[in-house]
Amino acid sequence: MPDDQRRVVVWRLLEGRPFAEIAGRLGTSEEACRMRFVRGLRALREAFERERATP
What we know:
mainly alpha, 3 helices, elongated
């Protein structure tokens, strides 16, 4: 997962930060943060699915 997506996922899920705060920290829009979050979650899901499929 790219670093920008990882940061958004960690700050949102683990630290409970609002998208407005994350956007301010990254110097981007809230919508861009939401997209990074969605893409990051998708990357995590795919990684877990690959791990589960490996014998």
